[in-house]
Design a protein that fits this description.
This is D-glycerate dehydrogenase. Belongs to the D-isomer specific 2-hydroxyacid dehydrogenase family. This protein has 322 residues and is α/β, with parallel strands linked by helices. It has 2 domains: 116 residues, NAD(P)-binding Rossmann-like Domain (Rossmann fold, 3-Layer(aba) Sandwich), CATH 3.40.50; 182 residues, 3-Layer(aba) Sandwich (Rossmann fold). β9, α10 and β10 form a beta-alpha-beta unit. The protein has a 7-stranded parallel sheet with strand order 8-7-6-9-10-11-12, with helices on both faces. Strands 2-1-3-4-5 form a 5-stranded parallel sheet, with helices on both faces. α1 packs parallel to α12. The radius of gyration is 21 Å and the shape is globular. It is 35% helix and 15% strand. The structure holds NADP nicotinamide-adenine-dinucleotide phosphate (NAP). The site of NADP nicotinamide-adenine-dinucleotide phosphate (NAP) has 32 residues, from α5 and α7.
């Protein structure tokens, strides 16, 4: 009997590949930087029992309906906005993600981005490297304080809660908005539930940690930025699609908000000519929220274990539910 075929859409750890090879026939798109061409992905998916995918792969209805053997798509991310869940369900394909293992790493990066943006750290690094530091001066590269300020977290899920824990260490007041209130954890975390409008009006830092969905797409638009303080700093390390980038540019350029720290963009990768990069008050990162060696390895292992479970007839460890 031939062994089930697993196709991996980007180069991942040799150890994880070996772990899969003990049970399955495994092939991998061996590029680290380049997305697999759509045609090749379609061709491999047609033969595959399992796909280990990246957030850059579009797993849509066309692919799912043309992949007769496919049983599981294990996405190397907690977000799954690149996968058509309805089509997966219709085609009896289990979808898995990598929650929890990346929570603290992404929260660390989100809080670092907040700190870097508030205290203008990238500008300060360039200042020295460009040989501009000629003397000490009272307001040289003066940024905004973080301690004792108010942080508003939109989407207090796993990562949002881990961001709240970090904010506690900075003696911040912590507000949050979710569709459903999380009363059971409020006192332990020291967070207050408020309406979206209240959060926008009161926060010095507005941090978005929601998934990208039909509901959150373009949620941060001009009207929303107008409701923030003109000293507010907007941080997004969820998904670029939650922001209307043209509106964000206008809000920053016209001084409606003060600064933005962005780990994610509407169309990734962005080029150096992206309008937001022309603004000194924008700190931009290339979607590295969960990118630590330890966490990326754990994510790969979890994705592989999900594949093993499903192909061996068991239940996925971290299935995505519709
Ligand atoms: P999670 O535990 O599912 O938390 C998501 C939170 O968002 C939930 O509390 C949810 O609460 C809330 N939410 C959903 N829809 C909302 C809406 N319309 N308005 C307000 N709140 C809403 O997920 P997580 O593990 O924290 O991850 C969150 C997201 O971060 C992921 O989906 C992913 O896109 C992104 N992420 C990015 C990186 C990176 O590299 N930058 C890394 C990891 C994750 P309710 O359902 O009650 O509204």
């Amino acid at each position: 009997m031939t062994r089930p075929f697993v196709f991996i859409t980007r180069k991942i750890s040799d150890n994880v590949v070996s772990m899969l090879e003990q049970h399955f026939l495994v092939e991998m798109w061996c590029e680290e930087e380049e997305v697999i061409p759509r045609e090749l992905l379609m061709e491999k998916a047609k033969q595959a029992d399992a796909l280990l995918t990246m957030l850059t792969d579009k797993i849509d209805e066309e692919l799912l309906t043309q992949s007769p053997y496919l049983k599981v798509v294990a996405n190397l991310a907690v977000g799954y906005d690149n996968i058509d869940l309805e089509a997966a369900k219709k085609n009896n394909v289990t979808v898995t993600n990598t929650p929890d293992v990346l929570t603290d790493t992404t929260a660390d990066l989100t809080f670092s981005l907040l700190t870097a943006t508030a205290r203008r750290i990238p500008e300060a690094i360039d200042y020295i490297k460009d040989d501009q530091w000629k003397s000490w001066s009272p307001y040289m590269l003066a940024g905004s304080d973080i301690h004792h300020k108010t942080i508003g977290i939109v989407g207090l899920g796993n990562i949002g809660q881990a961001v709240a824990k970090r904010a506690t260490g900075f003696d911040m007041e912590i507000l949050y908005y979710n569709r459903s209130r999380k009363q059971d954890i409020e006192s332990e975390l020291g967070v207050k539930y408020v309406s979206f409008e209240d959060l926008l009006n009161r926060s010095d830092f507005v941090v978005c940690m929601t998934p990208l969905s039909k509901e959150t797409e373009g949620m941060f638009n001009r009207e929303v930025f107008k409701q923030m303080k003109d000293t507010a700093i907007f941080i997004n390390s969820s998904r670029g699609g939650v922001v209307n980038e043209e509106d964000l540019f206008k809000a920053l350029e016209s001084g409606e908000i003060k600064a933005a720290g962005l780990d994610v963009f509407q169309n990734e990768p962005i080029g150096a000519d992206h309008p937001l990069l022309t603004l000194d008050q924008v700190v931009a990162l290339p979607h590295i929220g969960s990118s630590s060696l330890e966490t990326r390895t754990e994510m790969m292992e979890l994705a592989a274990r999900n594949i093993k479970q499903v192909l061996n007839g068991g239940k996925a460890l971290t299935p995505v539910h519709i």
